[in-house]
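Lines hold sequence, tokenised fold; shown next:
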Amino acid sequence: MKKTILAMMAVALCALVAYAAAKAKINFEQTSYNFGTIQEAKGPVSHVFEFTNTGNANLVIIDVTAQCGCTRPEFPKQPIAPGKSGKIKVTYNPAGRPGAFDKTVTVKTNGSPSNVRLKIKGAVTPKNKR
């Protein structure tokens, strides 16, 4: 009986160690993008940030938040398997925002790192007012 309990505890401990060692890891090709000069009249601009799960467990993008309503992120809702890639599209709306901009989008994951900051910047040329 004691040997059975010890064997079960050893198996449980091994499973726990294996589970703890499995970790997703998000690796972005780039974490910042400069749009340069854009024109307000041409409307929203977008950039796609590509990443790969270089860990050994499924990567889950828990949430992606922008610092203001002028920036809209789109991200995968399904887990990303180890070795697979994904994309986060960030759209900036320049309407009514002439001048320089520098915005941050925060990506929250179940992996390492748990938070990644993506940055976009540029300058908006205002519409001609007639």
The domain at 23-125 is CATH 2.60.40.10 (Immunoglobulin-like).
